[in-house]
Amino acid sequence: MKIVLNHKCNYTKEEFLNYQQEFSKIKTSHDIVMCPSYPYLALFNSNASLGAQDVSIYDCGAHTGEISASQLKGMGVSYAIVGHSERRRDYKEKDSEIKEKMEKLLQQNITPILCVGETKEERESGGRLEIIKRQLSIISSLEAEDIIIAYEPVWAIGTGLVPTIEELDEVLALIHSAYPNSLLLYGGSASDENIEYLKKSQYIEGYLLGGLSLKLERLQVFLEVC
Ligand code: PGA
Fold first, then answer.
1. Which residues have a Cβ under 8 Å from the Cβ of 174 and sit 6 or more positions away?
2. Would you name the residues annotated as active-site residues?
């Protein structure tokens, strides 16, 4: 399984170094991608693969605070999360911008991990599949096989809630039939407490972990079970 650890905006430098040391003691056959905060890309020293949490739409130049795909490549990054719901919500990221980011990543041979998922309101209004189809539509013009898709219901992220297997597999079946070559991840409160349940899905090929990625003892249990 592909397991992506999304640290979000967590850890001081010392905490990250300590985390990395403890992480190195975990033995697993799963394929792990660690996505630390940007400054710690330079401190990465692990058997895992290195991922970024975002990327700029710009190649270089006068764009204060931005980090380009080629800069990520130079730091050894091989995966990058794009379209995370926190960025769609907090920075008003649009599908068109997310598509541009994916193009920049693919030009650098960095595998994009595209996050899609409906909000609570969208779920309740019954428009879930339409929203996800719209978010996915940016892939069709990219002519790339090497894209990972993470289904992350927004209402499940950080809440302890997860969809039913029926809900989950309805969405994952849709994604799988449209993009059969993309690896499918689930993200949203996945943990050692619900992994036995999530394993009942016939489509999940890996997980995008937020909160659990910061709790190494519980992460280890998760990795043993998943
Ligand atoms: P969570 O976050 O596992 O804490 O719900 C997942 C994510 O935001 O990618």
1. 129, 132, 133
2. 84, 152
For the stretch 95-128, pLDDT in tens is 999 999 999 999 999 999 999 999 999 999 988 9
Produce one character per residue of 141-169: b if its CB has 16 or more CB atoms within 10 Å, e if not: eeeeeebbbbbbbbbbbeeeebbebeebb
What's the CA angle centered on 96, arms 91 and 97, to 5 degrees? 45
* Ranges of residues in the chain whose predicted pLDDT is under 70: none
Could you read off the pLDDT of 41-51 as tens digits, one per residue?
Answer: 999 999 999 99
Phi, psi of 169 (to 5 degrees): -70, -25
Query: Do 161 and 189 form a contact (C-beta atoms < 8 A)?
Result: yes
**Does residue 147 sit in helix, strand or coil?**
coil
Ligand 1 centre to CA of 86 (Å) is: 10
CA atoms within 13 A on the CB side of 167: 19
**pLDDT at position 158, please?**
95
| Ligand 1 centroid – CA 165 distance (Å) | 18
Ligand 1 atom closest to the CA of 150, numbered from 1: 9
Tell me the sheet residues that pair with 50.
34
- The whole-number pLDDT of residue 194 equals 98
pLDDT at 141: 82
